[in-house]
Specification:
This protein has a single domain, classed as Vaccinia Virus protein VP39 (Rossmann fold). Helix content is 30%, strand content 26%. The radius of gyration is 18 Å and the shape is globular. By secondary structure, it is an alpha/beta fold.
Length: 274
């Protein structure tokens, strides 16, 4: 079991303070701006929370729980469901969510799940934070599930999903077709934030065209949030026409986009005002 008495990293995000046990200082290592870690994502969540004071927040690929702990501290009407397949990271995540509950004794912030969400529900082979081939040295097998299947166990009402799964984003989306389409009773998906990785990292045969087509086919409005790691105010640009064409063609990605990922926001019409 992880020693949760180890030093905590303390964060202050737009006036919200919370603590996190973060082995390896992963947040610090992936912070590229003086504005903090992915500042535009917090702006997006703030703007969505203004319209949805009560919601379930699913963090797919939660690692140690930065966003679950931020959400628990910042949005008292939101409940967290956090998913992390790596057993070591999951142990830390679960401890951080328990600590968040202790910090907010009047309510239970949510749950952690050691699962690899995918398109079949099958168990998958992992190494670190990535799906790998079964014959990969040091790979571990982790339990899998389709989002559409587990969503039936989520609280009824508005749902916000964040996905950061290091190239498996298309695999996760392919397992949540009914949720995206709004056809699951009681589940009202309102927004999906998807960190999109470089083409060479994608797994499962789901390319950028397939990802956007799945979101558009579900009737969602699809935007790219430019410079999400470097700006305090989110700037969503509709992914249509030439902008869409340049997004789906990996040959047109800049080196900065390859190195630092890109961010999609897909929303049910009327949920978000750019």
């Amino acid at each position: 079991m992880t020693d949760m008495s180890l030093p905590l990293t303390r964060f202050a995000v737009r006036g919200t303070s919370f603590a996190l046990h973060d082995p390896g200082d992963t947040v610090a290592r992936e912070t590229f701006s003086a504005l903090g870690y992915e500042p535009a994502v917090v702006d997006l969540l703030d703007r969505i929370a203004d319209r949805l004071p009560a919601a379930t927040f699913c963090d797919v690929g939660a690692l140690h729980g930065y966003y679950p702990c931020l959400v628990a501290a910042r949005y008292p009407g939101w409940r967290v469901e956090a998913f992390e397949p790596n057993p070591q990271a999951f142990e830390v995540l679960a401890g951080n969510i328990r600590r968040a509950g202790d910090a907010h004794a009047t309510r239970e912030p949510g749950r952690a799940h050691c699962l690899a969400l995918n398109d079949t529900g099958d168990s998958l082979h992992f190494r670190g934070r990535t799906i790998v081939a079964p014959d990969t040295p040091d790979a571990i097998i982790v339990p899998g599930r389709r989002f559409d299947d587990l969503a039936r166990d989520l609280p009824a009402g508005p749902l916000v999903v964040k996905i950061d799964v290091h190239g498996a984003e298309g695999v996760v989306l392919a397992g949540m077709t009914a949720c995206l389409a709004g056809s699951l009773p009681g589940i009202d998906l309102r927004a999906v934030l998807i960190e999109v990785h470089a083409h060479h990292l994608l797994v499962g045969g789901h390319d950028y065209e397939a990802m956007l087509g799945r979101l558009e086919g579900a009737g969602l409005e699809v935007f790219e949030v430019r410079d999400f790691r470097d700006t305090d105010t989110a700037l969503p640009v509709p992914l249509t026409g030439e902008t869409r064409r340049r997004f789906v063609d990996p040959a047109l990605w800049t080196q900065a986009q390859i190195d630092r990922e890109r961010l999609i926001l897909a929303t049910r019409p009327g949920t978000f005002r750019p």
